[in-house]
Amino acid sequence: MTTQDVTATQQLIRARERILASVSHELRTPLTSIMGYTELALDELDDVVAQLRSTAADQGVELAVEATGEPVLTADAHRIRQVLTNLVVNGIKYSGRGHQVTVRTQSDALGAGFDVVDDGAGIPAAEVDQLFTAFFRGASAQASSQRGVGLGLALVKGIVDAHGGVITVSSTEGLGSVFSVRIPSPDEGTRP
Ligand code: ADP
């Protein structure tokens, strides 16, 4: 290894340390900040989606919202908006021109929440288990021009876990992906 290699490696290590410090701050924040839950009517999430509509249009992706009933989430509204934003942005990034991303508000036995559905490239089965690991990026994401550092889904999972909720992924290569978020209602007794 030359001196130049060593310097470059040290710079990379320092950059990685800086990123880790800011990420661990981000990941810790929801745990400490979720003290005052508010009621968030899921149709209010239309705000979030409205803000992403121009991003979607720029990428040639159609963004739709389908509300089933009007479930109400009792949650840290700011953090839940962050979850929805990250999932919709991923749907836009990893589906691409001519594709569609749909947000469906849902509630079931696990709680209230939403599904973010895209008809993009999907995720290889071997990668699904790693999606929520910090810094993980799929092989095709790495090969693509889409930027990212593999932290969005780790943050999403941190926030959902902090609410005592669940996030699941169902994906078929070539057909698309569904990310489902459910947050239990306070009387279900599963909140940490
Ligand atoms: P980033 O987008 O910065 O790579 P994320 O943590 O948000 O990081 O996502 C991790 C990986 O999961 C992505 O690199 C990509 O491989 C995969 N991924 C996430 N969302 C989707 C999606 N909707 N469709 C296909 N792959 C996805």
Describe the structure.
This protein has 192 residues and is of the alpha+beta class. It has a single domain (7-188), classed as Heat Shock Protein 90 (2-Layer Sandwich), CATH 3.30.565. The chain contains 6 helices and 7 strands. The strands form 2 sheets. It has a 5-stranded mixed sheet. The chain has a two-stranded antiparallel sheet with strand order 1-3. The protein binds adenosine-5'-diphosphate.
Give a short summary of the structure.
This protein has helices at about 5-35, 45-60, 75-95, 125-130, 140-145, 150-160; strands spanning about 40, 60-65, 70-75, 100-110, 110-120, 165-170, 175-185. By secondary structure, the protein is an alpha+beta fold.
Mean pLDDT over the full residue set: 86
Structural class designation: alpha+beta
Question: What percentage of the residues does DSSP assign to strands (E)?
Answer: 15-25%
Determine and state the CATH class: Alpha Beta
Radius of gyration: 18 Å
Number of domains: 1
Oligomer: single chain
| Count of individual helical segments | 6
CATH topology: Heat Shock Protein 90
